[in-house]
Amino acid sequence: MVENVKPPSIPxxxxxxxxxxxxxxxxxxxxxxxxxxxxxxxxxxxxxxxxKCVGCHTIGGGKLVGPDLAGVTERRxxxxxxxxxxxPDQMLAAGDPTATELFNTYNKIAMPNLQLTPDQVAAVxxxxxxxxxxxxxxAVALPPGDANAGRAxxxxxxxxxxxxxxxxxxxxISGVGSLGGGNLGPDLTINGYSKYGAGLPxxxxxxxxxxxxxxxxxxxxxxxxxxxxxxxxxxxxxSQRAPDTLLLIAGLAILGAAALIGLAQLRWSRRLKGxxxxxxxxxxxxxxx
Length: 289
Description:
Blueprint: H1 12-52, H2 72-75, H3 78-86, H4 88-93, H5 97-105, H6 118-128, H7 147-155, H8 188-191, H9 193-196, H10 200-205, H11 210-216, H12 223-235, H13 243-288
Helix pairs in contact: 1-6, 3-6, 7-12
């Protein structure tokens, strides 16, 4: 008769060691994946930041059009940053207190919605928290600017080297053209140098708005063109039109008013003639009787 033989049991301490080893391997592999992904995500964020953000922000380089973003990942929660970078227009419209404070602090310049994907937003946040620093693109010394050349570029008398459209097709400014320019973008009389200040060259080098970025990404301004436009906008940052422009507008207004009065007089005289002629005819007919 064969007896049932029980298989040797595995010691409990061996099972414990095996389980512990498995847990340690899992943790180590997780950290290795995260460590591998972190720098890559930060690198992607650096690309997005330099393409979309440097026109208004630096990281450790001081305030520009918007705030210096050094340490922003410590001052703001990741959740808030994600919402703000994804849809700043919606947060402002909703009355978010921090968003409203930033808007009022930085000359009421609204941060544009850059239409970033969730992955791009996460990458930018990772980059801002990576410890790397950036300076304003305007830190590269521009050549001396010529305001007259800047005006010519603005109105289209001079053409940009890379084929970009002249500024007046979208913007207007006091003293340029009798009736101003386009209205797709803001009037730059008060929204140009006086609003962007020293950050304007950086904005010209890398426009942050969706519309301007789409136009100028493939037709960037040369350093000389940036300098000339900056000089012109700085010089033209006034609150009233030039006297010669005002005189021309006044003259056109007077001519227009005179033309309207003449047309009204002509129409009224014809109206009277149409009424008086039958009356005269009836009077003459009555006398003949």
